[in-house]
Amino acid sequence: MNYATQMEAARRGILTEEMNAVAAKEKIPAAQLVSLMAEGKVIIPCNKRHKSLEPNGLGSMLKTKINVNLGTSRDMTDLEMEYEKVHRAVEMGAEAIMDLSSFGDTRKFRRYLMENCPAMIGTVPIYDAVVYYHKPLKQITAREWIDIVRMHAEDGVDFMTIHCGINRETAHKFKKNKRLTNIVSRGGSIIFAWMEMTGEENPFYEFFDEILEICREYDVTLSLGDACRPGCLADATDASQIEELITLGELTERAWEKAVQVMVEGPGHMPLNQIAANMEIQKTLCHGAPFYVLGPIVTDVAPGYDHITAAIGGAAAAAAGASFLCYVTPAEHLRLPDVEDVKEGIIAARIAAHAADIAKGVPDAMEWDNSMSAARKKLDWKEMFRLAMDPEKAERYRETSMPEKEDTCSMCGNFCAVKNMNRILDGEIVSIFEE
Fold first, then answer.
1. Residue 223: HSE in the Cβ half-sphere, 13 Å Cα cutoff
2. What does pTM read for this prediction?
3. pLDDT in tens, the chain (435 residues)
4. Do 291 and 322 touch, CB atoms closer than 8 A?
5. What does the H/E/C string look like for the chain?
6. Residue 166, C-beta contacts closer than 8 angstroms, at least 6 positions apart
């Protein structure tokens, strides 16, 4: 092999197996994909050790992809339920899964994912370090934080969230500029607390070059974590968020010098009218690297419906340039999601991603909708179900309220505009009450 990473291959003009597969999926010329990857504007997260992976590309000019968060917690340790979530996520078209396990035998679950899951796998090493070392946070050493990064790379993880943007300078800025909800990122809060208790620099920032060497060795994509993402609308686009983003832009360039693939994480909670501007700021400060956003959640007052608040923000973000949407479930802010919550979150995120793809003119995105419209015009229910994003739910809704006549639905019956227009344009008589 004449390259260490997909980015290095692209810079050398080498078309890898993974690039070929992605170009075919995206229906773009392979040469165009190679050029975008050489610039860092498209990435293919694919650890050399993840043998079950079906590669996907991330970039604003490609189809918008979605990520599903799952994993165990102290209060919910049912691995069988997590396996079922993985199965359902892949079945429903999620391109990536992030294992956020924070309790129990985390390595067992991570290795299961590597052996069995075709989706891209991401992790947050900072969570696992707390579980793995099982000692007071203050006593974890800088070396131990970095060792967990290597462990995850060796296990086959395709991308890792590394909270390297919240250094001591950013932390100082955060303390000077008070927030309504402080730091809501779990990883960000952990490393901030560690820095405050030890007085040391963030090891993920201080030893960033060593992390790059690990990523280069296994071709792990760096997901530069947004420790200072806003946790409420009032904190959006504040000094801490922008200060961290500036740092992440600098670290992006350092990663590219080593041909390490990078994406940058973004908000968070944010008013709808700020989203497009934030995407532009990110593109500028982070030099066009793919942007990975959580939501954004566009209102703080809908617990139980945050899959909807996030889908609204996600569609706006992706239409304005975000490449990768992290799903949000109805359980966000309330509990660990169950299998049904995962399903609802995936569908909401896929709707947002597809709506954005139509808006930005992704090749063939509109064809799916045109096919559905043609099936509706023909009142071809079987084809409508086949084309539906969630065929199971669509079919169930119809079956629970079957109309008197097969070619209508129970809402319109003989008032069906589609049926009546088809008839009148075919020269037939339309008589609504006498049929």
1. 33
2. 0.94
3. 799 999 999 999 999 999 999 999 999 999 999 999 999 999 999 999 999 999 999 999 999 999 999 887 777 677 788 889 999 999 999 999 999 887 778 888 898 889 999 999 999 999 999 989 989 999 999 999 999 999 999 999 999 999 999 999 999 999 999 999 999 999 999 999 999 999 999 999 999 999 999 999 999 999 999 999 999 999 999 999 999 999 999 999 999 999 999 999 999 999 999 999 999 999 999 999 999 999 999 999 999 999 999 999 999 999 999 999 999 999 999 998 999 999 999 999 999 999 999 999 998 999 999 999 999 999 999 999 999 999 999 999 888 887 777 777 778 888 888 988 888 899 988 888 765
4. yes
5. CCCCCHHHHHHCCCCCHHHHHHHHHHCCCHHHHHHHHHHCCCECCCCCCCCCCCCCCECCCCCCEEEEEECCECCECCHHHHHHHHHHHHHCCCCEEEECCCCCCHHHHHHHHHHHCCCEEEECHHHHHHHHHCCCHHHCCHHHHHHHHHHHHHHCCCEEEECCCCCHHHHHHHHHCCCCCCCCCHHHHHHHHHHHHHCCCCHHHHCHHHHHHHHHHHCCEEEECCCCCCCCHHHCCCHHHHHHHHHHHHHHHHHHHCCCCEEEEECCECCHHHHHHHHHHHHHHCCCCCEEEECCECCCCCCCCHHHHHHHHHHHHHHCCCCEEECCCCCCCCCCCCHHHHHHHHHHHHHHHHHHHHHCCCCCHHHHHHHHHHHHHCCCHHHHHHHCCCHHHHHHHHHCCCCCCCCCCCCCHHHCHHHHHHHHHCCCCCCCCCC
6. 174, 183, 188, 191, 192, 202, 205, 227, 228, 244
Which residues, in sequence order, are CB contacts of 363 under 8 Å at separation 6+? 26, 27, 28
How many whole angstroms separate alpha carbon 47 and alpha carbon 220? Answer: 5
Angle among Cα 49, 55, 60 to the nearest 5 degrees reads 130
Strand partners, 145: none
Sign of CA dihedral 191, 205, 240, 236: negative
In this structure, the chain runs to a length of 435
Tell me the C-alpha distance between 347 and 352, whole Å: 9
In angstroms, rounded to a whole number, what is the distance separating the alpha carbons of residues 384 and 373? Answer: 9
Q: Which residues contact 274 (CB under 8 A, 6 or more apart)?
A: 236, 237
